[in-house]
Design goal:
314 residues, alpha/beta, eight-stranded mixed beta sheet, 9 helices
């Protein structure tokens, strides 16, 4: 039985906690947050407001970090130094040099460390990566990716609206699509971006150029309460593969139209996240790596470093 503790009972924990609880041979025993009221909904867990106290009193195998971005590195290092395996929410950090610090500590302490870049485990994005790699529909000619929503007014202490703590739209939102591109295709040959940045909103539009094709991506925190939207559309030589309005569709040049949408799944929390079992997929994968002593190499440090360095240019 793997014993798990989670620190940071904020928005994304609403996806992580039920995922842990759904798994056999795993016990999410402890939660930690400086706001005791955040743990009232989980009376079956040991609740802590002090992280060190949780580490001292609980015999944890895994720590799940769902804290604000600027706290990730410090808390991950403290846990790994105690021999605890760490799953850390994205982004790994705002600093590229922290990638080497964290993975170096994991090696030295003989523990597993993984950043929860969830699109790598999202069924519709896995399908897109497979289509690109297999050449089933010919070469990729172009792509577009969209991740839009309203400015997050719900974040604790307003940390998401503070560039020094969150990195704003590039690091909090656009990172999903860029991470997928680096995972699927490697680093782009060229990057061109435009940005509208004001105190009450942040919007970027980026074109990534690869050998023989390009991908445009746009991400936003609008001042208006625009509903969260995540989508893609990729043009191949012989088909269009799209994920829009929650449906994954394949349109082939022979006239056929195929609905590839998977079975619907339950709610993932309170911050209007798209419905998917991808959070459970990534958590289950990491737990299996811990059990079997495998490196969680679906998420590689060199790719994480490349993503941070690219985000710094936007």
């Amino acid at each position: 039985m793997l014993k798990v503790g989670l620190v940071g009972v904020g928005g994304i924990s609403g996806a992580h906690i039920p995922a842990w609880d759904s798994m056999e041979d795993i016990s999410l025993t402890a939660l930690c947050d400086i706001r005791p009221e955040r743990m009232e909904a989980y009376p079956d867990k040991h609740g802590y407001t002090d992280f060190e106290e949780m580490l001292q009193k609980e015999e944890l195998d895994i720590l799940d970090i769902c804290l604000p971005t600027y706290l990730h590195t410090d808390y991950a290092l403290r846990a790994m130094e105690r021999g605890i395996h760490v799953l850390c929410e994205k982004p790994i950090s705002l600093l590229a040099e922290d990638v080497d610090r964290l993975y170096g500590t994991a090696r030295r302490c003989n523990v597993r460390f993984m950043v929860a870049q969830v699109l790598r485990f999202w069924p519709e994005y896995i399908r897109l990566k497979d289509a690109c790699a297999s050449g089933a529909y010919g070469r990729v000619l172009s792509g577009s990716m969209t991740r839009l929503g309203g400015i997050p007014k719900w974040s604790w202490d307003g940390w998401m609206n503070d560039e020094a703590r969150s990195g704003l739209v590039p690091f909090d939102l656009h990172i999903h699509d860029l991470d997928f591109l680096v995972y699927a295709f490697g680093a782009p040959r060229d990057v061109r971006s435009r940005r509208v940045r004001r105190p009450d909103q942040d919007y970027i539009s980026v074109e990534y150029e690869y050998q023989g094709f390009f991908v445009t991506a746009q991400s936003s925190w609008f001042a208006a309460p625009y509903p969260f939207t995540a989508a893609y559309r990729f043009q191949f030589e012989h088909a269009i593969l799209s994920y829009e309005n929650g449906k994954c569709m394949l349109y082939q040049d022979d006239g056929s139209i195929t609905d590839l949408t998977g079975a619907p799944v339950g709610d993932t929390g309170s911050i209007n996240l798209p419905q998917s079992d991808a959070y459970a997929n990534e958590i289950r994968y990491f737990a299996d790596c811990v059990r079997n002593g495998h490196s969680p190499d679906i998420v590689r440090p060199e790719e994480l470093r490349s993503v941070i360095e690219l985000l710094k240019t936007l």
